[in-house]
Design goal:
Shape: globular
Largest sheet: 7 strands, mixed
Bound molecules: S-adenosylmethionine
Number of helices: 6
Helix content: 25-40%
Distance between the termini: 36 Å
Structural class: alpha/beta
Length: about 200
């Protein structure tokens, strides 16, 4: 992966099988599953932000949530629509979102950490706007416990999370974890964060 902001998301899903992608996980992310269990969540509207292979959207829909999956890659959305025809998928860039409806929950598994640092405030404002009052935001990203190589996703520290999100969200939990996937025995160090949208900012 080149620098995150310059990555060719548009073409990736045309040229590579989703099951070969390093983030591919047929199962629901284990941290997301634990959060649903802990919070007792079983229904509501869910946005899967940067849905990619759409496995997370599919698993959430199977559990009874009303899911919308969005991605900046048109090819990812076409593929997702063809694979899971009972879920709403939309082509959308979170930095210039055209979404109008609001959601009870948002999952971002692997999108925020590829957003350019100078665009993070736009991202946060848009995620805030897309959540219902007191809605929850679940975020999984690479952590600073992963060695920096100059390539790939940004490494995110707890301090970055606090500095970026605290004005808009109450940070309920920051969990040190890993990015489990089906393809790669390497499991990148990650953070999983549970946040609640503030009512007013
Ligand atoms: C690391 S992949 C994770 C995919 C999926 N969430 C999963 O867990 O399998 C990141 C995804 O974010 C999407 N993405 C990147 N920038 C985006 C943006 N600005 N708006 C929406 N999606 C974006 C990419 O196309 C890619 O599918």
């Amino acid at each position: 992966m080149t620098k995150p902001g310059n990555f060719e998301w548009e073409n990736l899903y045309k040229n590579m099988k989703v099951t070969e992608m390093p983030w591919y996980s047929a199962d629901l992310d284990n941290d997301m599953q634990n959060a649903l269990d802990k919070l007792g969540l079983t229904s509501g509207t869910f946005l899967d932000l940067g849905t990619g292979p759409a496995t997370q959207a599919k698993k959430l829909a199977d559990k009874g949530f009303e899911v919308t999956g969005v991605d900046i890659s048109e090819d990812a959305i076409l593929l997702a629509k063809n694979t899971y025809n009972n879920i709403e998928f939309l082509h959308d860039d979170i930095l210039k979102t055209n979404l109008v409806k609001k959601f009870d929950f948002i999952l971002d598994r692997g999108c925020f950490h590829v957003i350019d640092v100078d665009k993070r405030q736009i991202y946060v404002q848009n995620v805030f706007n897309l959540l219902n009052e007191s809605g929850r935001f679940f975020l999984k990203c690479f952590s600073t416990k992963m060695p920096e190589t100059g390539f790939g996703p940004h490494r995110i520290s707890e301090q970055i999370i606090k500095d970026t999100f605290e004005g808009f969200f109450e940070i309920e939990e920051i969990i040190d974890t890993e990015f489990k996937n089906d393809k790669n025995p390497r499991t990148p160090k990650a953070l999983f964060i549970i946040m609640k949208r503030r009512r007013n900012i």
